[in-house]
Amino acid sequence: MINKSLTFCSALLVCCLVSLTTSAQTAVQIKPGRDPNVAIDEEYTKKIREYTTESFFNSPLTDYLPASSKVPTPKVVLGDVAGAPGILPYSSEVYRYMRMLEHESPRVKVYSIGKTEEGREMIAVAVSSEANIAKIEENRARLQKLADPRSINLNDDEAEKIIADTVPVYYITGTIHSPETGAPTALMELAYRLAVDESPYIKQIRDNLITLITPVVEVDGRDRQVDIYKWHLANPGKNWPNLIYWGKYVAHDNNRDAMSLSLQLTRNVLNTFTGWKAQVLHDLHESVPYLYDNTVGDQPYNAWIDPILADEWHLIGWYNVGEMTKFGMPGVFTHGNFDTWSPSYLMFIAASHNGISRLYETFGNGGADTLERTLSPSEYSRTWYKQNPPLPVAKWSQRNNNNYEQTGLLISLAHFSTNSKYFLRNFYTKSKNSILKPKTSGPAAYVFPGDDPRPGGQAELLRLLQTQGCEVHRATADFTVTVPAKKRPARPAPAETRASGDGDGGAGSAGNGGQERRETITRSFPAGSYIVRMDQPYSRIADMMLDLQYWAPNDPQRNIYDDTAWTFGELGDVQVVRVMDVKALDAPMEKVSGEVKAAGGVLGEGSVFLVNHNADNALVTLRYRFKDAQFEAAEEPFEAAGTKFNRGSFVIRGVKANDLNRAAADLGLKIYATGNTPSVKMHSIKAARVAIMHTWLTAQDEGWWRLEFDRYKVPYNYINVQDVAKDGNLNAKYDVIIFPPVGRSNPQQVVSGMPMFGNPLPWRKTELTPNLGGTDETDDMRPGLGWSGVQNLQKFAQRGGLLITASDTANFASAFGFAPGVSIASPQRLRVTGSVLRSRIVDAASPVAYGYNDRLAIFCANGPIFNLSNTVGGRGGRRFSAEGPERFTGRGGPDDPDTPQNRPPAELPEEPKSEVWEATPLSDEQLRNGVFVIPPSARPRVILRYADSRELLVSGLLESGNEIAQHAAVIDVPYEQGHVLLFSNNPFWRAETQGSYFLVFNAILNFDQLNAGRKLAEK
Ligand SMILES: [Zn+2]
After folding, report:
1. Which residue of 237, 319, 527, 999 is most buried, as measured by CB atoms within 10 A?
2. Is the pTM of this model over 0.85?
3. Ligand 1 centroid to 295 CA: how many Å?
């Protein structure tokens, strides 16, 4: 069914395509390929042909290299041609070549666009005609007007005049994924071709657009990958180490940062894209044979893109396939099962900023070896969208890869340059549509209320939007708008008869008894509220990030490629109100100049300082900034200095008011000075010594934890499982050990590590591998935690340490006896594919919950589903929310007792009752000789649970949510003198979950006081 409708769809597109090409202003057919009058570099050309394994793996565009008397070919740096076997250049070599091009050709200009986390440079190389390069700033100024049509009063005639004089910018980015190695050499050669070739085909490109190239996006990872490849060449016949670290923090996920902008590479590419006002961002990857142009992709498409973009995707993608098909190159296709829902990919910087996002997957060998590659039937079979599929078996070389990449790109550049006015007009129209958004689709604005209890988190999210290029305004007076009334559930969900007294969501339902559903209510916002207006050029990215997402459980797309939700307000625990009412735009307001910052400083006089705990992440920075000062936490809410303070609020002594004032201003924290200590129960909170532990299997997901610990300046030691295996006294060094998710579902793998069959796999800085190490090192990546490591971790907790685990490492903790009384249920039909779910606070007195209001949104990817028991090894009882009465077959109705005949009815003992997130109370039967009974003080303490089914889903996909609804989400397990903390959610995910960070920070600061406020069961 799906295929049928898509075939229809593509047939339609062929029509569009024909009309476009015939109506295009340069309808003259320029034959792709070499101009016989242009001299070629014979030697280089010979090598291209030699390294290409089959003639059909090349094209008329890349089977020759034009000669130049002045401009050097890539050979000058590589020692051979681009894509030659055995040659992978470091980033510095790629840059050296690009700068030689710049030096020798007036058609090339190299720009430094920023540094990586490890201080390596990133560049962008512009290639165009001399005339275009000479007037590059004038062109940029014109593009700026098209990018922000407010500057020309949305005047289409004026836009047409600008378009007539302007050339577009096509931005190509290579090697964001470090084991995908072909792009740098392909892009070196592409830049050369564009600079020197006088063939009409290339000249047309050069004259009508600016090609902008970042040859290496993940520069740190590229240099490490080249090290690994050199190690491989120096150690023939041996297995080589897996590239565990790409960038400093994350590996493959560096391509999931386009919303959070937490990595330097993302910010540098974003700034380049928006700074140049580019029209396309075309990102190069390697995986499937031989060229998958992801431009068309598959459903569902992101719901916030301009529909014009969807049409551009189809137009460009199918054209690209068509042209390469004509060249006879096998394995080129554009439709595939990669959905285009999540906007977190690097290419989406374009889609969310009025440009065009594109992505190629070409075929690579993970290095520059030439190999015979055998494909699977799913790869080589002919399908409706892959009429000339890849070969089942073929010799494949890096040169083949470079031919495909360059051929695809040259066709794209030619197509774009031939139709440059058409695409510029689209660019202008999309920018204009973004500005017209309040009047067309809405919303009119997103409002961030001025009385949000978490101004720090609010400022942080607004700063992120500013970094995305959005303008932020601030209301100078109160204002009122109409908003939809909060919907009440039409009827109580049948499975929720045991809901624990949830309210009706209060906020908007102005107390009419819920008799009639009102459609709208008015809502007032105080002066100081922030307004993100949707009548601005980059309204689209703000709408994408702040809106809710819904993925239907019955969506035909069954291979969901990534997260289904990312709602930043919810995950950041920041209040964000979507306002359709265009009156919001008339509120008195001024544009915020400079970065949004929460107000901070010390108020009042005195030597005792009080800081309200509102789970603002800056609080942990404050604690560590004054690590020698005396900090205490109030165990109950209190009032002082005319202000209300939440449970967990800081009471600080031994700090100079001036120092604290500086820190408070810097961190956006309000601190109250007072003469006397409040009379509330307090305990000391220490600047705990923290370690973050990683395995050598992968260091992908834990990188997101390190990144944020660094950002909030929480110091930690970075240790690995092999260190822990050897260290019998971890308590001497650490108070808290964090074991972030590993991404391995079988916890046994953490213990066993990699198989020991082959040779050792070193990860270490050596002369041969100067870019390895740095983050961590080992002589052999294979050994895991081992049984000694398990014991050492247990001893650590038993002696008073805190072990923090989340998602799969919570599974590890449960499997290896770190969490008596906690078991994990297997999901049956549950699907939570990177979704945002609602939680409820169960135990607000736990220090882990300090500063939090109820109903925190948390990020969940299929659990785990925790069950609790008061006995060791107990699995917990009925663990679905009530599904009708539990009785045996007999007389009467569902709630009636059965009646044995010929004797008086017996009085039935009361069945023990418990909530889903609780353990079933012990019966006297269990307590008799209770060998496995856990004493009350050692029982797991549930801090957060998942909300009831009917309010569980905030954003994304949730199917059979009743399997996880009401189950415990965050559990503190006492472990002799110490504690083990288990998260079902992942509190640190892709720099999107700022709202849940403080659950972890609270645990760290209170690591030796986690029993505070605990109420114990009687038996
Ligand atoms: Zn990739």
Report:
1. 999
2. yes
3. 14
